[in-house]
Amino acid sequence: MKGYHIRDLSLADEGMRRIAWAEREMPVLRQIRERFAQEKPLAGLRISACLHVTTETANLMYTLQEGGADVLLCASNPLSTQDDVAAALVRDFEIPVFAIKGEDNETYYRHISAALDHHPHITMDDGADLVSTLHSSRREVLPGVIGGTEETTTGVIRLRAMQKEGKLEYPIIAVNDADTKHLFDNRYGTGQSTIDGIIRATNVLLAGKTFVVAGYGWCSRGIAQRARGMGANVVITEVNPLRALEAVMDGYRVMPMLEAAAIGDIFVSATGNKNVLDRPHFERMRDGVIVANSGHFNVEINLQTLREMSHRVVKVREFVEEYTLTDGRRINVLGEGRLINLAAAEGHPSAVMDMSFANQALCVEYMAKHHASLAKEVYPVPQEIDHSIARLKLRSMHIEIDELTEEQREYLTSWTMGT
User: Fold this and answer.
1) CB under 8 Å, gap of 24 or more: what pairs does 18-23 form?
2) What is the pLDDT of residue 1?
């Protein structure tokens, strides 16, 4: 057993119960695990994973382990770790885990360094902190790395920036961009879990509130859809004219954030950008507003500026900090501005993570087989993997679909048949 750093090993019993509960909702990953256990496609590979340490992640780690991999896990966010799950992974699966919920920034990066001490052949990242650390301060580990995967929109953006600058040193598959990931995980997972996190943190009634969503990408679409479903009056802010137009066509009010700041009751940012909520917005917000972030990093709300504008900061609930401005107005920030769905709740439902983590498992297998022929670039998930996961998911839901006839296939590939 290798070293580990977790909160409390005695929490493992509860962690095992919750891991088993999540596994019931992950039939696709279960089928992959059964095949991996027989074929051992990852035998001899060391994998360092920097992911949210949740019940769903535990099932992914077990799947990789059953495939023959030597796995190590660290947290991809200081507030996203479920300590009982970390304990179960260490005690019952003998997987080294370096993650403690609420860890400070120094500990967070010490844990990432521990993951790199594993000298991985494959990296598995959620936000690209593991990859960026590897490429900056731990370059001695690079020669042994053959490939990686990335889970999030934010991470893919960072990796493509590295590729553009010629800094990326090995091939990485953008799991986030798989249709069976972003169309479902980002929309239905983030939508439900973000609302769940806000309600658990505050216990506020959404019906009748003006709910402002920054951005209208897949995550924001899901948040807006769920907020509207609970009776909120949803406002969308955007910088992309096409997405703004789509939001209008979907029936939402669209306006600049500066205008929305004056009328909103609850603000959620999910853009992947920094300072989406900033001084000009804080100056216009009404007393008692709630501000939350559902983007990967805690940069979307300018908390430093908000702190400078405040004469008092008080923790009023477990995941709520009340900033009192010099004019007496109060702004309530949830979960320290970090991912509210994981800071205050349990993250995405297991059923949707089933598809996301099936992509992770199959892409690791693909990388193990094909890394030698891949350039140092960010690659999409192969379509055959995406479609196979969709078929497995449908089958697990007892849903059958049609197949093209030979005549239809021929028609779709021909240019000679017209009217």
Assistant:
1) 18/55, 18/82, 18/84, 18/85, 19/55, 19/58, 19/59, 19/85, 19/88, 21/55, 21/350, 22/54, 22/55, 22/56, 22/58, 22/59, 22/350, 23/59, 23/350
2) 41
pLDDT tens track for 347-385 = 999 999 999 999 999 999 999 999 999 999 999 999 999
Sign of CA pseudo-dihedral 9, 115, 161, 163: negative
Closest CA to 163 of 182, 150, 151: 150
What pairs with residue 50 in β-bridges?
Answer: 74, 125
CA atoms of 37 and 32, how far apart (whole Å): 9
Contact predicate 100/107, CB 8 Å: yes
Q: Could you tell me the residue ranges of all domains in the chain? A: 9-181+348-396, 189-343
Where does 189-343 sit in CATH, by number? 3.40.50.720
Q: What is the pLDDT of residues 227-270, one digit of tens each?
A: 999 999 999 999 999 999 999 999 999 999 999 999 999 999 99
